[in-house]
Amino acid sequence: MEAAPIQLDSVLKALDIEDSREALEGDWARSQAQAPGGVPFFLEPDFVARACEAAHIPEEFRPDLARAAEHIARDEAATALAWHAHWWMHETGDFSFERVRSWPRLTHSLGPAGGLLYLLALIGGYERMQRIHHEHDIPAEIVRDTLSQIELYLRPTRKEQGYPEAIPHRIAWLNNHFRGVIYRLARLQFQFGDSHYRIRVFRDDAAGRVVALSEEGVRFRPDGQLLRAQDDPDGSWQATLTVTASEAVGHPILPEGRALPDPISLPLNRWRQVLAPGDPVLNLHIPGGEPMYYERCGEAFETALEFFPRHFPDYRFNAFVCGSWILNTCLQELLPDTSNLVRFQREVYLFPIGLSDESLPQSIFDGVPEDLSQAPRDTALQRAYIDAMQAGGLVAGGGGCFLLPEDVKWGAQVYLSQRMPW
């Protein structure tokens, strides 16, 4: 006689996660009805070893994962939750980034094993990942480089007393790597997606020019940056956009990353639309772990132009796009022209996305310092930021970028060097 599925109430109480009911109850009964009897296969020692190998997890972390799997397998409630996480990530097609992010943190009830439970559930789906890579003939070195993201999350979270909560919090991001929707090439990661930025881009093929127009209804500050909730609305203005059969009339955005208040007209017998909201794109991500080498970034774009048509010929993307603190235009005030970050910004077309003032210190200090006078000054960027803030402050700008495939000419500063149509 089969054992009855474990009830969510029992798991919530046993793991002291009663406040996570809403995050788990929607699919709980369905996942437990499909749970295997006994210990789930992905917690078996031999399988964990194979999964670690397939996920290219460094040897130093594998004993920790083996011990965590053994610990979880002895705990009925933890086993049920691990199966639920594995089932939801790999057995359903209903993946939701926000749903995974809402799952409960577990180290308070399971210790170090709680910090690795979701990772074990994730790498338990390595066979599906391998099928995707095999179907698209992904080179082994690219698989290895792509999965190195797991180490980037493991290493900083490892402490003498075990693993804190960063891994379960970020497992939603790592799941992209197992779903075959993101690949690391040289210094950058490229992820399939649709453009969600409120810009429309046009190209004049005859003159080799590119112009971005703001979408209708976007509100800007006097300096051409997006008006944020905390900003003073005085002097702000709202963009308009009209596209007819003969022309597009709207507010241009300079490649330097700011919008202009005076609209322009682009005749469509000369200018063609090449990017709009909803168009297929490759989203850029910059993994940590090493400097953002300028030459390696250029190599990444050039490699992508060969890699994706070869391995995913049915995916036609309109542009490379990104939104990040790395594209904050105030970095050009803080860093020399030789900086990797500054040189990167000048190779792409920047546009404003409403960056928060905290995004830069959050990233360069790994948290917003309460007292700048006590903040670390270990890097040139940290020192430059502290000095600038103490001298009067900085204004965040830009934050988004695109690079059209035909404009990948690294080192040419294509967009900055063009003559704009006004």
Report on the structure:
The chain is α+β, with helices and mostly antiparallel strands and 422 residues long. The protein folds into two domains: 8-180, no CATH class; 181-356 and 396-422, no CATH class. 39% of the residues lie in helices and 17% in strands. It has 17 helices and 16 strands. Strands 1-2-13-14-16-15 form a six-stranded mixed sheet. A five-stranded antiparallel sheet has the order 10-9-4-3-12, with no helix packed on it. α2 packs across α5 and α5 (76-91) packs across α8 (117-123). The chain starts with 7 loop residues before the first helix and ends in a 5-residue tail after the last helix.
Strand content: 15-25%
**Radius of gyration, Cα only, in angstroms?**
24 Å
State the share of residues found in helices, binned by percent.
25-40%
Count of domains? 2
